[in-house]
Specification:
The chain is mainly α and 150 residues long. It is 53% helix and 7% strand. It has 7 helices and 4 strands, in the order ββαααααααββ.
Length: 150
């Protein structure tokens, strides 16, 4: 895993290291690190379908394997599909477990690791958009266990 420092952004271009840890933790998860290059070349519509499956899984705890595997193609192998799914799951779970996480911090942290802009917009919408309450209420923490966050 890579150690990540959050650099000051936007505030008079200070470039100072912020005194906080990124929302995903001090070390960049390996699946997130590996997904960056794949996401740069992935069709945004395909990513949105993957994101929809991740959100569905977070809400229900069920993943339909058939729907999942239908997204493989010449441009997206099953291994890369699984990697993007895992990376998206890691990021969403990390974000949803922080009730005080702000959208601006979430976006800034993803920009720091060079996630593609459209992916950041879609992830931000999943975490802070209209489905925010649904995902927060039913976040699974283990087999048959759920956490309710108010």
């Amino acid at each position: 895993m890579s150690v990540v420092q959050v650099m000051g952004g936007g505030r008079a271009g200070s470039g100072l290291v912020a005194d906080r840890t990124p929302f995903y933790g001090a070390k960049l998860p390996e699946e997130v690190k590996k997904s960056i290059a794949i996401l740069k070349h992935l069709n945004p519509d395909v990513f949105r379908k993957i994101l929809k499956l991740v959100v569905q899984y977070l809400e229900t705890g069920v993943l339909e394997e058939e729907s999942f595997l239908q997204m493989t193609s010449d441009k997206l192998s099953e291994n890369n599909l699984r990697l993007i799914f895992a990376a998206t799951m890691v990021l969403l779970r990390a974000a949803l477990r922080l009730p005080n996480l702000k959208s601006e911090v979430f976006i800034d942290d993803l920009k720091q690791i060079k996630y593609p802009e459209q992916v950041i917009v879609d992830l931000n919408s999943a975490v802070f958009g209209s489905r925010y309450v649904i995902v927060h209420v039913t976040l699974p923490i283990g087999p048959g266990m759920y956490v309710v966050i108010f």
